[in-house]
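dumping these here so i dont lose them again. two proteins, back to back, each one seq then structure tokens. dont judge the mess
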Amino acid sequence: MLANIKKYALEITVFFLGALRLLVSAWLPLLDKTEARYAEIARIMYDTGNWVTPQIDYGVPFWAKPPMSTWISAFSYQIFGVNEFAARLPSFLLQVFLIVFVAKALDFTKKQTYWFALVLFTIPEYYIHCGVVSTDSSLLVGITLIMVGFWNSLKENYNQRAWKFVTWVGVAIGMLAKGPIVLVLTVPPIFVWSCLYKGQLVAFFKKAFWLPGMMIAFVISFTWYYWAEVRTPGFIDYFFVGEHYKRFFESGWKGDKYGFAKQQPMGMIWVFLLLFSLPWIQFVIAKGIKKKNELIKDKWGTYLWFWMLWTPLFFTISKSLIHTYTLPSMIPLGLLVMHYFENYQKQKAWFIGAMVVPVLVFIGFIGMNTFYTDTNWQNTDKHLLKEMTHKEVTDCYAWEFKSYSSQFYTSGKIKVIDTAEELGDLMKQEDPFYILSRNSHYKNMPDVFKEQLTLVGTNKKSQLFIYNP
């Protein structure tokens, strides 16, 4: 038995890491703000049946992102019900799909496929996105189809027309996932790489399947943009001008409808890349330096370097970003690791180091479930809302502000009370209700109303009260 375990240690490790990520996805509540927001948008789509316009609240369109990630989460709700696991499962499936797709496209052996999976599962940024609700996983699918499709379309012994088709399907998926940023993150590295090699630039312009490809992208994605503008006029201007120009190039942009952009020091994207791709980024940098004199002769290696480095280079001058913006670099990083491996068995030290993050996740998961039951560290209102144990009290309100997790875990029933007058009128009806308040907003509530409320529970950001006259 021990011999079999040793023989299949690689496969067992990969499946263990996948199962662990699914367990954490099912156990961890949806966290504010980003993840709970996208899960709630998908829940509203599932609840209303409006598959054209994503909504951030009932009747309030969400213009910041196209609907690809919302569609797949809403579809998952239809199969598995509305819960955290169903919201996150599509991201896991997309990441697994990418592993299989890339391995098949590049003719990996079965063993190489498992090594590739292990490398990606031990890249923190990639592993994180195997279990979060976000638009980035869908975008990564589009980017990967474009980059791998274009590379294979240049090979003489491949079905070039089919791979050109794959490339343009990637464009369509990317447009539906996050918009034209998919072209910004793929066309420049392809073009610059093509300029380096004789004949490749001609192939870029003459063999890119331009007219049929654009028709494919139009049929798949641009029709949605048309209907989105018809349903909610103003979407096109906000999405293309606001979200894709002003957000990144106007510091302190005030037009954001859905929260303040994350302000970071210029160049922070490189710090994110180094931190969230440990230790494999060090491995490929070391190998790249060692083989620098051979790099220009290595078309595939050069292609991967351009692919990996272009995203952080593009976002270098942007101050409005988060660590998830480095995700497009993770597939080429994994492929560079595979490219530079001379012998997998001799890289045990790197794999042992790479297993640190998954092992810590496993230890944390066991520890949190066994010895540490305090949930106040979690940025969610789920546990607080569980304190609403009076079955006869069905109404729930939020004072001045409602979190996305409170919307999700009350199935959208929580309502905001903006003014003291509204709260006073509600109390005059003498019907019991729960009211949730952020600690930062509670000070704005008049003392005369505070005296009539009974504290039910607290977490690190909020308090739950009951009014029971």
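---- next one ----
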Amino acid sequence: MVREAILKEFRTLPGVGKVIAEDLWNLGVRGKEDLAGRNPEKLYDELCDLQGTKVDRCMLYVFRCAVYVSATPVPDPNRTKWWNWKDKTEFPS
């Protein structure tokens, strides 16, 4: 039951649906508070290792966004869109 509640909580994050919620669980993440302290690049590398293949880089962008939203009490609306987390340092205004 706890697992299902955590998966449901993950699905409240931008870009996270059932499959990505399961991926986070399989990576050992046990809630948004736990996710807030994680390194998105490391999560991505661990997922690639877990799946035995190079995962689409968009997953890294989703992880970056999810970690940011989990760690930020009032997230900037532009930073809640995973596609704004590509390999760049500036965000749209």
